[in-house]
Amino acid sequence: MKGMVSLPRKRIMSGMRPTGRLHLGNYLGALENWVRLQDEYECFFCVVDWHALTTGYEDTSDIRANIREMAVDWLSAGLDPERSTFYVQSRVKEIAELHLLLSMVTPVSWLERVPTYKDQLQQLAAKDINTYGFLGYPLLQTADIVIFKADFVPVGEDQLPHLELAREIVRRFNNFYGPIFPEPQPKLNQVTMLPGIDGRKMSKSYGNDISMAAAAEDIKSRVDMMITDPARIRKSDPGHPEVCTVHSFHGAFSRDELAQIELDCRAGQIGCVQCKRNLTARLQAVMAPLQERRSRYIERPELVDEILAAGSEKARRVAAATMEQVRAAMRI
Asked: Could you give the CA distance from residue 297 to residue 301 in angstroms, rounded to a whole number?
């Protein structure tokens, strides 16, 4: 209506490490949600290449290729550079400056009590990650978020302690220097946990993933390898869908038919081979538009580079304006 003033949209910030091609677990766990958010919020999505160094600093040979590959995955999922800003962390040097300044006011004990810190030290015992970079990555994460004055951060429940630390750091900084940063609020994802084809957590390191880049034949071969109900010998045997990896995938991608799939399985009305065929067809249909979008960008890598460059420049302008306020508040 004439005379109405449109309010600025709330701001979202999130990111991913460029560690190789993304898989369907990444798609369901984050990207599908990001695509929805860009219609409602002003979104900043970051390829966090500095974060990739916290556990992989000894070999950086693939990081540039991985940055471009991740951008292609994002574009194929439906992220739109006209509606979202996606950028490379290391191209926004202001983030590093803010990280340094926040480190001056953040107690070491706050970083040491992050729940994942000691857990990952044990899980990655074969790697030498007793570094400040690894200890301080939640602080760098805080800088990533607050330099854009993000209102919300989409997270799973396991990531809430990291965001609460960011909120504590913001309160401490604002107490010293004035109200520069808003406290970022969690926006909890409704995450569908997708297992790997062997029933374990989906992970590239396990070799049990289905890549977002998988072609139709690749999807079929991966589904054919999925673990089904080990107690079921004949098609007519009653099935136990709760122990079946194929059924878990149907739960994520065939929600409209899930109740009937489960009834047929328990009644021995459908065999595992046919169930796998049905899942293959569903996954191929879901991924067809992703593959179509992917082909546009694979054929034009220079366009992907242009998108990242433009997004990084826009992000730098926003970050630079924040840092002007920070320096003034700190009188430096």
From this structure: 6
